[in-house]
Amino acid sequence: MPTFYPSIPPDLRDWALRQSVFFVASAPLRGRHINLSPKGLPDSSFAILGPNEAAYVDATGSGSETISHVRENGRLTVMFCSFDPTPRILRFFSTAEVIEWDEPRFASELARMGGKRVLGARAVIRLDVFKVQRSCGYGVPLLALTPDPEPRPYLKDRETMGHWASKKVEGNVLHEYQRLNNSASLDGLPGLRSALKDAGRSVWAARLGNWASRHRDEIEMVKSVVLIVLSTTMSSRPVRIAGASGSASDRRHAIVEFARNYPQDPVDVIIADFMSEANMSTGAARRIESDRQVAAGLEPTAPGYEPAFLLALQPALHDLARYGIKLAVNAGNTDTEGLYKAVTKMVQAKKLDLKVAWVSGDEVLSTVKQALSSGKSTFKNVYTGETLRDWSFEPIYAQCYLGGLGVAAALAQGADIVLCGRVSDASPVIGAAYWFHGWTRDDLDQLANAFVAGHLIECSNYVCGGNFTGFKTLEHLGPAGWSNIGYPIAEISPDGRVIITMQSYATGGAVTVDTCSSQLLYEIQGPWYFNSDVTAILTDIHFEQLGTNRVALHGVRSAPPPPTTKVGVTARGGFQAEASWFLVGLDIDAKARMLEAQLRRLLAPYAANYTALKFSTLGSAPDDPRSQDAATVTVRVVVQARTPDAIAPNNFLRHITDNIMQGYPGATFHLDLRQGFPKPVYEYYVSLLPQADVQHRVHLPWKNQTLDVPPPPVTREYPARQPSQAVTTAPGTRDVDFGATVRGPLGWIVHARSGDKGPDANCGFWVRHSDEYLWLRSLLSTARMKELLGEEYNSNPQLQIERFELPNLRGVHFLFRNLLDRGVGATTTVDFLGKNVAEFLRARWVDLPVKFLNRGKL
Predict the structure, then answer these.
(1) I need a surface site. Which of 64, 99, 105, 666 has the fewest CB within 10 A?
(2) What sequence ranges are listed for the domain AtuA-like ferredoxin-fold (predicted)?
């Protein structure tokens, strides 16, 4: 019986390359001639480039059937028959593309294949393998490669095509042979483009003529012309884009790993995200200080860009150049030109031929101030509604979010490395796919899918099992379990289809429907997902598990982008200091109340100069604790003020420590007192800026050229608030009987994921089975969520809740407005990124249907 695989099994790769001959089969859509060609010595001409990718070097021959058929319809099957004593047949069912000897990609494809060479090579045939079949082959005679035992005089002086080509190529005899024999198939389909050109024929005319003669019906002919245009202007294979960093705090090894492992796991583009609202504010402060130092004739002490990127890039440069891998990152932060200079210096020191471009336009403080002073815009905070004029802080920096077309333009001009500042997290993926497939702004469906793909991989490990509520399943999965979670790859086809996968070499983690759902849900704020280039509509989104670590994206719809883009305004927000006390064992609440009362009395003379003073009890002591550590709880004391003097040690920290002698039983403060000294905090104000006011520009220094990226020509206005459903809209759902229940944590059977957006927190919940979704959506109404939030809701009068459902994900999503104080740069909460909101809510107890619980706990 045959066995089918979704990709090339690792144990069959070496076997295939050991065989002496392989065969390729192709056919035209309507012609009479089906072609079967033998190809020699796979070890010298055939390369397996990845789990679903292979290629072979095609030598000049007496016909061009394979090339013509692939050009027409993209279909190709490769078969290996066993030359070993054990019979076996292996077939690769594939779509394919032809890369001719005179195309710029030909040399890089040969390099990807490990430098394989065939004399008289006319093309590389690259395969996207979508199915592999292995069968026993017992009905096939034993094949063997042996010397000819009989002398045959008539073969004595016979040359192979390769030997002949090696002698004749200098005199252009090989090209003449190709012109005579390789310009068309037996059915008249156009063959080698170079042969057609040598024959003085138009490639377009040949294709149109051949197709028109076959399709007498006008509609069919129009269809064929469309196919011709698509096959000529677009690559037939997906672009493979790797996500190598999710923040400036990510591990540093992924870029070099992707580059170094290219031969076994090739990628076309590596993207890396180094930006967040947190380092946008700190980067702004570094930029202002750097400008001040330069103006004073001093050397800047800290760059505005992210130096962590240089640590990740340096060891990868040689392999990026060797394999022709493109790189697009947003590590420029607030000084992209400075990062360009640093990267260029590094490239030149290594004597590498890498073209470095950079993108500007995100720095918009002058634009914001001009619009404000002229009355063109009042700017309203998208979270609070407060106008910028009423904001009680002085802006020092403003940065808007750019789309991906600057990245696309740089790549189209030959850039190898594209450096950006505040492009949106997903924009490098949009730009890479736009460039690779030759899309236009009108290809909104493709752009929307690329946008979602970008969101899925821009947080690196998250889509591979990082920050995932099913993490316990990963402990012993793969070579590294949960000790070394791998990095993701997005495969984006010309028509926008997306498959999420991950590194194929020895890492841990997994790409599953649940890991993809987790990453999707944590950052969206409703069914409309906005980018400067497109709006993705997520109402019908869902995922499909295609195989191990391969998940397909479905159901994304598109709409034009909004006319505006998000702009973040940074201001100096004052200063913060904090201290911690430890409480152990019994009476934790009473001990915390005693400590707070004593400290508030000691700090009262200085409190008028504070802007915030907050006490938080972190954790609880269990009954009959197993250890002293388990019984230990922390009280965190946080103070903020406009000036550092207001919270200097004499006005805060000294009184915190002086309280110890009158404290609760076992009173102990944390000995590391460094956080008790004032440190700056930054306020972050988020508004909208018309895209038409943004000067999005690409800098191409090796050409001494700049390119302007115009705003989208077609946009759509959207309501300020997204659609919200306070309760499930499904008729009768609330009346379903789910059987017997027991009390237990929601997280025993419900996945969840949360994250921050300014002062807001997004939180998505989803379940494993369809019948569980009926229960989840009826349970998690807005009213019930207020109950589950408990003190978090009751103590925060500004907290608002918005809810919407994602039926195809079996999910319910909540947006908690103003849950996180004033955002990551100024919040007084421990959960400054909002990532633990979901974990708190999963720990809340509800009535769980027994039949769902019997399926196993998460």
Answers:
(1) 666
(2) 746-845
